[in-house]
Amino acid sequence: MISQFFVLSQRGDNIVFRDYRGEVPKGSAEIFFRKVKFWKEDGEGDAPPVFNVDGVNYFHVKVAGLLFVATTRVNVSPSLVLELLQRIARVIKDYLGILNEDSLRKNFVLVYELLDEVIDFGYVQTTSTEVLKSYVFNEPIVVDAARLPTLGPASIFMQGTKRMPGTAVTKSVVANEPGGRKREEIFVDIIEKISVTFSSSGYILTSEIDGTIQMKSYLTGNPEIRLALNEELSIGRGGRSIYDYNSSTGSGTVILDDCNFHESVHLDSFDIDRTLTLVPPDGEFPVMNYRMTQEFKPPFRINALIEEAGALRAEVILKVRAEFPSSITANTIQVQMPLPPYTTRVSFELEPGAVGNTTDFKEANKRLEWGLKKIVGGSEHTLRAKLTFSQELHGNITREAGPVSMTFTIPMYNASRLQVKYLQISKKSKAYNPYRWVRYVTQSNSYVARL
Amino acid sequence: MAPPAQSQRSPSPSQPSGKGEVSDLKLQLRQHAGSRAPGADDAKRELFKKVISYMTIGIDVSSLFGEMVMCSVTSDIVLKKMCYLYVGNYAKGNPDLALLTINFLQKDCKDEDPMIRGLALRSLCSLRVTNLVEYLVGPLGSGLKDSNSYVRMVAASAVLKLYHISASTCVDADFPAMLKHLMLNDPDTQVVANCLSSLQEIWSSEASTSEEASREREALLSKPVIYYFLNRIKEFSEWAQCLVLELVANYVPSDNSEIFDIMNLLEDRLQHANGAVVLATIKVFLQLTLSMADVHQQVYERIKAPLLTLVSSGSQEQSYAVLSHLHLLVMRAPILFSSDYKHFYCQYNEPSYVKKLKLEMLTAVANESNTYEIVTELCEYAANVDIPIARESIRAVGKIALQQYDVNAIVDRLLQFLEMEKDYVTAETLVLVKDLLRKYPQWSHDCIAVVGNISSKNVQEPKAKAALIWMLGEYSQDMHDAPYVLESLVDNWDDEHSAEVRLHLLTAVLKCFLKRPPETQKALGAALAAGLADFHQDVHDRALFYYRLLQHNVSVAERVVNPPKQAVSVFADTQSSEVKDRIFDEFNSLSVVYQKPSYMFTDKEHRGPFEFSDELGSLSIGADSADNVVPAQRVEANDKDLLLSTSEKEESRGATNNGSAYNAPMYDGTSVPTGASQLQSELAISNTMVPSHSPSTSLAVDDLLGLGVPLSPASPPPPPPPPPPLKLNEKAVLDPSTFQQKWRQLPISLSQDYSMSPQGVAALTRPQAFLRHMQGHSIHCIASGGQAPNFKFFFFAQKAEELSTFLVECIINTSSAKAQIKIKADDQNRSLSLSLSAQLNIGIPQRSQRLFCNKPLASNPLLIKLLQESISRIKTVLDSEDNFTFKSSDFSWDILLTTLKSSSSAKAHLVLEWRLEKMVRDNERDLVPYLELIFLCSKVQNVPFAMQVFNSMEAHGIELTSSVFNALIYTCLSSGNVMTALSLFEIMQSSENCKPNSETYNTFISVYSNLGNDKAMQAWYFAKKGAGFSADLRTYESLISGCVRSRNFDRADRFYEEMMLSGIMPNGQILENILTGLCEQRSISKVEQLLKFMMDGEWEISVLMAEKLMGLYFEHGTVEKMEELLLNLMNLNRSFEVLQQVHCGIIRMHAMLDRLDDMEYSVGRMLKQGMSFRCPDDIEKVVCAYFRREAYDRLDLFLGHIKGSYKLTKSTYDLLVAGYRRAGLSEKLDLVMDGMKLAGFF
Predict the structure, then answer these.
(1) Which parts of chain B sit beneath pLDDT 50?
(2) H or E segment at A225?
(3) Are B593 and B356 a contacting pair, CB within 8 Å?
(4) Alpha-carbon distances of A392 from A400, A403, A451, B458, rounded to whole Å
(5) Chain B nearest C-alpha distance from A202 (Å)
(6) pLDDT of residue A122
(7) Exposed / middle / buried, residue A38 (Cβ in 10 Å: 0-12, 13-18, 19+)
(8) Distance CA B98, CA B1027 (A)
(9) Rounded to two decimals, what is the model's pTM?
(10) Do residues A282 and A357 share a domain?
(11) Chain-chain contact of B383 with A400 (C-beta, under 8 angstroms)
């Protein structure tokens, strides 16, 4: 049960503010914003998503640069409220197409309409985009999609790959295409976030894939969908330790540690032929989340070296090798490395012929940053950096710098080898042939190499 | 709505500043007010939008109220909604104007569009204006009966809104009853869910004043309601599911099979993508299995994977909420997570609040097998750029070092930290090294060598500086320049801002002086002078104290300041265990995230629906909770606990046995029974003066410590004489005011202390269970209150025949597992109070800990196969199975099915189906296999299938006999399906050749006996007699065990006599039950009689009987009887185990009375007969006795004696360690430590 819900902009303005129970004193938004903003200055890092000020509990999630906040005085389930906030953001996005400060300001009356039905007197009524359709009468005012960053993992398809229709992921569930006709299409995205930690000698210390199969359907008449995954898919690692790398059973098997499903999914035949059956509701939702610690081939190998080169100097060599097929291209790669705190100057040296590279030394937090626009599979890239120090080194320089971390996005690639074999839409008519998009993408979560 | 601090923020250009715009809007609204022109609605929309947006950003637009209402007459639904929103916001501040809106809202409530009706009703009830409530009742009443579910859904929550505006209007209009009806009957699940949440809130808040409401609230947790919700759970939305699960978590199932049913039903909820659903399900699982240790552990294993998946899917915020819960579970049972440690490694991009949790989890799960890897990982973080996390990591390494025994490698790592020469790393490490040295002085050499190299100038943080100074003082003889370092520190006295550092400096200089006088004299003088002049009081006082001490006598000073240090074994835990338990009870709530129980951060009125209220005056409950203990004393307390635990175990066994074993020395053992009861009656009143927590155990410890505290006469009374049975009125009533009045007037007629079993304490975490339990014994609760660990309850009871009332106050401290009960009675006859107290004693819940999940997995390959196969393949597997397997002697369908059922009832069903199909295929004509199959159905409680078997028997023309019906009845009854069983019985009665036979009645009797329903059992017994059947051995066996189970001992005795008279010889089971009953009644003479009968008839004495007997003798302190029994048993050459039981009982008795000689004799006698101790408990009793008498050499001898035949457990070792430490016998201590090492406990 929550008392208030509000959305704040980055500067702390109320964009929507709904008080459901009138139990929390006025000024809660102000109190909240101040607390979050100055949290860091108390030396405690970011504000946690839940905190208590004078008996009022504040919950918040950050979505698209906005703060979605709920307050209550009651000892509620934090998971429930945070889940709800996230869900409200998703519902709003389903309706507005794009969620950002601009679209929210333009459509705040519609958002109030939604909020009226989502929560009544603090209790959640529904967060189903579909159910809410019958209660919403405002037409969304569409904002220009191209300029603004969008919400959600699916937004990555906007960048780099021209194969995807850019409007698809930013289309409102209620708005029609120009011409009044709705385009029949369905999107299935397999999005994987990978975490790898390499030891200083280059072997893998830990690795994990957190994946989700995300669906967004614009099909009319709610047809049933069958989604077939790899037949060689097993779930749960039985009694074995999850980090037991020596136990890869056959080459084709994908072993998930665990997974969970959206409530619309029927698992009747999942045990037998690994197919999921569902009637997709409107809007974006995760069909299945999964987690895998089975050994997999990391897409990038990082080689990092730091060496003393005289009393006040050191040299850093960073090598990144792409270990995926050359038909695939990773984009927006960023490599970062903290340098010793007494570093004053850094000069960079790229390979001859390198294009689309940026190098930078961030003075404030003493960090080296190396950006690459894209990396083609199979290629290798090297950066040399010469460091100048303000004081003499003592002790081991490798303890003063690092670890190297990397962020990237690789479209049409997934490390787990989990696949959607087919996507079947049951509809009688022959002429009915909606667009089906099955897309893969891999992103870095925590990709770290130690020195 | 408008934040007062609004003006402090500089208005952004897009935001209007207020006044001018508002009056502008006012004008425009007026223009459009009555307009019906085309396009007017569009213009209004724009205006309304502006108003709402001003409202949102905090500009006060309440002055537009009138105009807004005037504009609201429209059919445009978007306009309506905006208007409702506006009105809801400002009505409270403009109650008079709000009246204007009532009209159009009421009209809308009758609109033909259900959407408009719903919206209007919602807005109408959201006005929050008290003087308008009369207008709400009508629309609300019709809303609840509306044909459209949307309107009903809105109405259900609108009732709650009304309740918050005017509770009396809501209750008087009988809305709660209407909600209840809707909740149990509405087809729409969201309506049901809203009814449930509204009712929970209403009844919880009404419960404090209304009996009825509190009964209704209780009724929400009744079996039919819970099952109603559970059976429909999948129809509910994910959010409503959370609501239902939260309710189920408070439900107390009647038996274990019910628990497994619920868990099976909910298991797939663990795969839900919504974390809130998963956590709510986990809470149900955890709460249900609290009293079943091994199943509870299985639950942990089961929920691990789903929790980890939730942590890694979803946003950072969601994952934090889940991780906090995982953290709680890890802290509760680190061992279960020790192989998952890699999941708790920090990722570089995680926020620090997540990293902190993970570091704590890593610390907790570290054990011998993973410490190396964990510490290696933590050392990586120590070099982290995020300084707070780096600090936490170093602390984590230190904590691991302190909780591990093999710290060798860790110390090396810590010392490496010092070489990193980062200020904060050095500072944290110094503090840790100091703590390590306090626990492991043996490391001093290595540490000192490194610490000596640190320049004190590089250490600035007070904590670290203090640590360094402490080490300089403590180890000044090993650190060459210690005096000089200290001297330079003293020189800079004035620059030292921290009093803590100055205090340490004083002490260190004095310590150094006592070891190296010539070098330190100068520094000491300077330090004392500076200290005496210090403005900080503590520093000044300490300097003065040292000064006088030195003046008095230097060698005394040496003894005071520089005594040999004892290693600290356990550092105190920062959070008390009851706080932790409380947090665990509040699983899936903010308590887990904040890591504190809800009462620490919520106001009273917001504590959730099931917090119970405290009524009846001010309940100031003794402030003696452990929270008040000064941390320094905690260490002491911990060591004490080590000893206490053994004696407390003893106490929890017999709840009324308050004369704790250790007290025994105060009486002459032989005359206890008479002497004690006299003493008790004298003490009955004065006893109430004694604080409830003067448990005998603390005396015992004092005694053990050799402090020679005189045994005060105020120690709790010995067991009461057997109370006469007391019949209570089941439906007694008493209103609170009468209760209060009586409580003030009446004197206390009895006051008693009880110990509770750990399960009892666990059950008390939800007081409902306790209250229901008491109600079951016709003792009713009138008020309750308190916070963990202290609970207070007021009960009353009435005698069945007359109007004599008993009032009871019960104070329970869950942390010490003690309950104190005061009884006041109309009838001043003390014996009545005593019997009531006996009944109360039953009421202190002691949940049984039967284990249902015995899975003999490994023994049966078929079973394993079946468990692994998917449901669709079950029959194929069975088909493929060799016929031989089924015929082999050690194959049991019974075990196969029960085990299978516990994992999947569908599979069990398929197995049964397969068997039936096979029999039909084989054209089986024999009756027996069918009967067997029906009995198997009873094992898995599958009544429908039993009926199916029955049908196919009929279809195959197999002749039906009474035994077929008997089997069916048995299956129905054991599945709890009484109705079917009774109709089967009727069928039998009316049939020709299947009349009920003796066996039929026995079935009923035995099932009711097992259920503990002695009334129904006896009714069937009489029915049997009436039908002309005589009772046989099986009948009596069921009757007697049923009576004993429901503690109706008199009846049990009567049945026993009846049986003997009719010439039926009892069997072992019956004798065991009778003996148990007699022992419970403490009628020693009857026990003797029975025993004689058994000895004469050479009946087997079972281990359980021996245990009961020893318990009884033990209470009475009659060693002679024990010896007699032993002699008798030895003559009869009884089983080994029974003899052992008796031997140990005798030894225990002697040990309690501190009769070392007798004890040693008994031990010797037992060992000679080739027997040894049964359990560590007995040994610990003996060890304690030696410690109390300070007979350490004899203890050595004793230990030497039993060495060959008994392997000491860890708890015994701990006891020895603690005892020797108390006694200051370091050599023996070392020996014990060595012993422990050898035994592999390190």
Answers:
(1) 1-16, 608-724, 841-858
(2) strand A224-229
(3) no
(4) 13, 21, 20, 17
(5) 15
(6) 93
(7) exposed
(8) 76
(9) 0.64
(10) no
(11) yes
Q: Between B58, B324, B590, which is nearest A76 by CB?
A: B590
Of A226, A223, A216, A218, give the one whose Cα is nearest residue A285. Answer: A216
The residue in chain B having the minimum alpha-carbon distance to the alpha carbon of residue A23 is B606
Q: Does any domain span residue A271?
A: yes
pLDDT in tens, B994-1048: 788 888 888 888 888 877 777 788 888 888 888 888 888 888 888 888 888 777 7
Q: Among B1239, B1240, B1171, which Cα is nearest to B1205's?
A: B1171
pLDDT at B241: 95
CA distance B867 to A199: 41
**Residues A190, A279: one domain?**
yes
Number of domains in chain A: 3
Q: Residues B929, B919: contact at Cβ < 8 Å?
A: yes
Residues A22 and A126 in one domain: yes
Question: Token pair of B1022, please?
Answer: 């009489």
Distance CA B1128, CA B1134 (A): 9
Asked if A382 and A433 sit in the same domain, the reply is no
Q: Please give the Cα distance from B1232 to A124 (Å, whole number).
A: 61
The string of pLDDT tens digits covering residues B1184-1238 is 888 888 888 888 888 887 777 777 777 788 888 888 877 777 788 888 888 877 7
Q: For B190-218, how does the pLDDT look when each residue is reduced to its tens digit (9 = 90+)?
A: 999 999 999 999 998 888 888 888 888 88
Give residue-wise pLDDT tens across range A296-343: 889 999 999 998 888 889 999 999 999 999 999 998 899 999 998 889
Do A220 and A285 reside in the same domain of the chain? yes
Closest CA to A439 of A409, A407, A414: A414
My answer on whether A239 and A252 are in the same domain is yes
Burial of A181 (0-12, 13-18, 19+ CB in 10 A): exposed
Q: Do A196 and A261 reside in the same domain of the chain?
A: yes
Contact B589 A22 (CB under 8 A): no
Question: Mapping DSSP to helix (H, G, I), strand (E, B) and coil, where does residue B528 land?
Answer: helix
Between CA B373 and CA B409 the distance in angstroms is 11
Rounded Cα–Cα distance for residues B921 and B924 (Å): 8
Q: Quote the CATH superfamily of domain B611-624+706-854.
A: TATA-Binding Protein (3.30.310.10)
Beta bridge partners of A211: A192, A290
Amino acid at B314: G
Q: Are the beta carbons of A12 and B9 separated by less than 8 Å?
A: yes
**A81 within domain boundaries:** yes
Helices B114-125 + B149-165 axis angle, to 10? 10
Nearest to B1144 by CA among B1092, B1098, B1106: B1106
Alpha helices in A298-411 (DSSP H): none
Q: What are the extents of the domains in chain B?
A: 455-569, 611-624+706-854, 1100-1205, 1207-1242
Residues B790 and B111: their CA atoms lie apart, in Å, by 55
Residue type, B708: G
Chain A residues whose CB is inside 8 A of the B279 CB are: 77, 79
The torsion angles phi and psi of B290, rounded to 5 degrees, stand at -50, -40
Is-cis flag, bond preceding B789, omega within 30?
yes
Comparing CB atoms, the residue among B128, B351, B589 nearest residue A45 is: B351
Q: Does A150 reside within a domain?
A: no
**Residue A70, both tokens:** 């709920």
Backbone angles phi, psi at B552, to 5 degrees: -65, -55
E-strand ranges in A379-419 read 380-389, 404-411
CATH of the domain at A207: 2.60.40.1170
The answer on A27 and A17 residing in a single domain is yes
What is the amino acid identity at position B328?
Answer: L
A263 within a domain of the structure (yes/no): yes
The shortest CB-CB distance from A86 to any of B315, B421, B594 is to B315
Give residues 268 to 307 of A whose Cβ lies within 8 Å of B.
271-272, 286, 288-291
